[in-house]
Amino acid sequence: MTRILHLSDLHFGTENPAVTEALLRLGEELQPSLYLLSGDITQRARRSQFAAARAFVERLQVPVLAVPGNHDLPLFNLPARLLNPYGNYRRAFGSQLEPVLETDQLLVACVNTTRAARHKNGEVSAVQIRRVEQQLRQARSAQLRIVMMHHPVRAVEETDVDNLLIGRDQAVPAWVDAGMDLLLAGHIHLPYQVLLGGSHPERRAWAIQAGTGISERVRGAIPNSVNVIEYSPGTPRRCRLTRWDHAADQGRFIPWQSIELALGP
């Protein structure tokens, strides 16, 4: 079985130390084979914040795949934003902004939806759509096929519609038809899952949103949370999604909801 811990919006610079330690303990308990980090790793893209994030990742002692979020580009340092917007990110997380990971049971294709010219909104280009589509079509039947980015493609609250990815109406059906199973994202600090459809009725995929993992910038009464995805090849194809919430009174993350997601053929 492949177990993945999906984190998002850690916002180092606003992290809660107690929640951070609780998340590390959860990782030790669950022993995931992979961490996926869907952006907004830092609050203001400062070198010190990325250094703290890098130190956290090294404590996980498990492979981590990450993409940048809008907060991972300098906001107030305009020369850096224009000339080297990903400088601090690359220093901490490597040169690849759109890494790809492939194992016998897993394909993860990452998409950088941030743009230096945009303050917070995300965008996907036609070139990115075609690249990911090709990667998905080359996947093997036993693989869980994941696309990860920072910005959401579906909203469950009206107030979040303005945060949706520009280009989603072209990307989502193309990727679902190409075989995508899960689309992981963050950005709005609201955890949920939504069924996605393509142009063919037999194809289906799921948009899975993560809350903020350790930041004090929680959304309303929603606590810090992370997602755990478990997958074993089989027929029919399916995976289990469990949302873990931080329980402040217990000082640990506890399972809040666990559901089985049916996947397409």
TrEMBL record:
Domain of life: Bacteria
Record-linked InterPro entries: Calcineurin-like_PHP, CNP_phosphodiesterase-III, Metallo-depent_PP-like
GO molecular function: exonuclease activity
A Pfam family of this chain: Metallophos
UniProt keyword Transmembrane present: no
Record bears the keyword Iron: yes
Keyword vocabulary terms for this entry: Exonuclease, Hydrolase, Iron, Metal-binding, Nuclease
Domain Calcineurin-like phosphoesterase residue range list: 3-190
Family the entry assigns: Belongs to the cyclic nucleotide phosphodiesterase class-III family.
Protein name: DNA repair exonuclease
